[in-house]
Fold:
Amino acid sequence: MVAMQCNYVGHDAAYAFKSAYDEAYARYSPGVLLELENMRVTREEVSVPWMDSCAVPNHPTLDRIWSARRRVEARVVSNGRWARDLSIRLFPHLRHLKRVAHSWFPGLHPRKRSRRIIESIVVTLSATLLLMTAID
Structure:
């Protein structure tokens, strides 16, 4: 395979979730060629009203291909139960805790064991809150 792409397609939208290509063929731009074909197929054969590239803002390649922009947001809404309310209120604090923990280990490489330990602590705290919500 030279290039591959995984899309999620729903009733009224499609999302270009992940793409990859063989670096040995980079000079032929297989990722760009695949993206152009993906856009054609989605428009002509899948027939969804819109598609999200799922790219970060100001992406050097995809911004030239995808000219239209639409703001997409995620919202978390409580069901009114105390455990769900607590987990939603604590989530930003857990993200802050993760940043603080990383500042305690400034020279930490992303793939080193210490970072995985810190992240597992934060994930465990998050999972505990979700479990509390499920029990409630």
Remarks:
- The radius of gyration is 20 Å.
- The mean pLDDT is 77.
